[in-house]
Amino acid sequence: MVLEVHAQPDIHPRTAPPDAVADPVAPPTPAARPPRRLAIQTVNVSRVYKLRGEKTPKGTPPRTLTALGGVTLEVAEGELFGLLGPNGAGKTTLIKILTTLLTPSSGTCRVDGLDVVRDADEVRRRINMVSGGETSGFGILTVRENLWMFSQFYGIPSRAAYARIDELLKVVELDDKAHARINSLSTGQRQRMNFCRGFVTDPKILFLDEPTLGLDVNAARIVRDFTRDWMRRHPDRTVLLTTHYMAEADELCDRLAIIDHGAVLACDTPANLKRLVQKQPIFAIQVAGLGPRSLAVLGQAPGVVRVTGDGDAGTGIYTLQFILESEAAIGAVVTALTSQQGQIMSLQKHEPTLEDVFVKLVGRSLSTSEA
Q1: Vertex 309, ends 304 and 315: CA angle to 5°?
Q2: How does DSSP classify residue 347?
Q3: CA-based angle 40:46:52, to the nearest 5?
Q4: What DSSP string runs through 162-217?
Q5: 277-350, what's its fold?
Q6: Which terminus of the chain is more exposed, N or C, with fewer CB under 10 A?
Q7: What is the pLDDT of residue 25?
Q8: Is residue 250 a contact partner of residue 270, using CB atoms and an 8 Å limit?
Q9: Domain boundaries along the sequence of the chain
């Protein structure tokens, strides 16, 4: 049996007493914080590719593919910013532009205050990048030698480089492979070495493109924990992360952007993005001892927008779903259940996920889009 009850409209709206006045001793308004410096800024950045491989009538220009269509983003210094999107959404193109590997077709792009086209050499000195699944390094070199060689491209003194390398290898539990040749490493071990390579230069801005791809659960956890800890110890550092793991983005990112077909669909904190798909709190409560008429009473509890029930009238056990005006209304619901002799067996708040947000904006799940 399924029942549904809607709350009746309040025909006696509550208003403040006519003699109510504001507190004459209100606390002073705190001074506004100065805006944080921008680590990354893009303004109407687009990237258009000419499809030269196709045959076109003589005199007809080749067709084009728009990978990015006017992307505007701002990432503050000290943020861990995420990019979510299916394959072909434009994430890789945007990262290549930010890391000076591609030039934009139009628009402006600045990294650490520098133009990525005009100041490309200086930008490269301040950034680093780790891509999941890449095969980097020289197979005849050991892990420690390869990381040292990479540090020399950035001019890191050998003593400082070796100290960082040894510390990072311990973090990712690869110190026992420090003197092993790269060609003897497994795929997961290579990925952990690549992760170390991203941090050994102590970059101001780090681009992590699928950093946990190919890692086991424990190694992925170590990577996430170290990234957060590194940013806590260096609050002036910035990380831009792309990932296909929604839980990873939810755990790590201060803010994130969802991108598809070369356009930014939404950009906010994970919590605010979730509110896009669920503006009112939802609670599921399993109760025993209720009669069929009890649901009508529960629907009239203060703050209840709607209540639905699914259960057995014979046993009096129901699973109720309450949509509330605010979380505070759950207290009135519990009181109403008690007044109806209901015994609460379980209570759980339904939390929307980033996957829900992604499906709402993109139209399909990330796992489906990767198929």
Answers
A1: 130
A2: E
A3: 135
A4: HHHHHHHHHHTT-GGGTTSBGGGS-HHHHHHHHHHHHHHT--SEEEEESTTTT--H
A5: Alpha-Beta Plaits (3.30.70)
A6: C
A7: 43
A8: yes
A9: 38-49+64-269, 277-350
Instruction: Write out pLDDT tens, residues 164-190.
Output: 999 999 999 999 999 999 989 998 899
Fold of 38-49+64-269: Rossmann fold (3.40.50)
Assigned token pair, 147: 């990381």
What is the token pair recorded at 135? 């095969």
pLDDT of the residue at 53? 66
Instruction: Please determine, for residue 142, whether its predicted confidence score (pLDDT) is greater than 60.
Output: yes
Q: How far is CA 317 from CA 294, 309, 330, 335, 353, in A?
A: 12, 10, 19, 18, 29
The residues, any chain, with a CB within 8 Å of residue 153's CB and separated by 6 or more, are none
Q: At 76, list the tokens.
A: 């503050």
Residue 211 corresponds to which tokens in the numbers above?
């950093």
Size (the chain), residues: 371
Give burial (CB, 10 Å; 0-12/13-18/19+) of 326. Answer: exposed
Q: State pTM to two decimals.
A: 0.76
Specify whether the CB–CB gap between 288 and 333 falls below 8 A. no
231 phi-psi bin (left φ>0, alpha ψ -120 to 50, beta other): alpha
* Residues 19, 24, 27, 33, CA torsion sign: positive
Residue 24 burial (10 A CB sphere; 0-12, 13-18, 19+): exposed
Task: Give the phi and the psi of residue 291 in degrees, each rounded to 5.
Answer: -100, 165
